[in-house]
Amino acid sequence: MQEIKQFFINIGKGDIDENEQNLVSNDIIDSLDILNLVNEIEKYYDKELDS
């Protein structure tokens, strides 16, 4: 869970609770945030995600 929290902090969304649900449908994050999260995940695991 700490890694996930750090991903959100890294994209400037550190105020999001890790237990929060429906982030997109509740307009908490948008498509750019999702792209930034994917980038953070790829950097952390040093792997590219298939789209």
Q: What topology emerges from the helices and strands here?
A:
Blueprint: H1 2-10, H2 31-45
Task: Write up what this structure looks like.
The mean pLDDT is 93. The protein contains 2 helices and no strands. It is globular and about 30 Å long. It has one domain (2-45). The chain is mainly alpha-helical. The protein has helices spanning 2-10, 31-45.
| Extended strand count | 0
The run of helices and strands is HH
Which secondary-structure class do the elements indicate? mainly alpha
In DSSP terms (H or I, runs of 4 or more residues), the helix count works out at 2
Task: Quickly list its features.
globular, 51 residues, mainly alpha, 2 helices
Q: How would you concisely characterize the structure shown here?
A:
The protein has 51 residues and is mainly alpha-helical. It contains two helices and no strands.
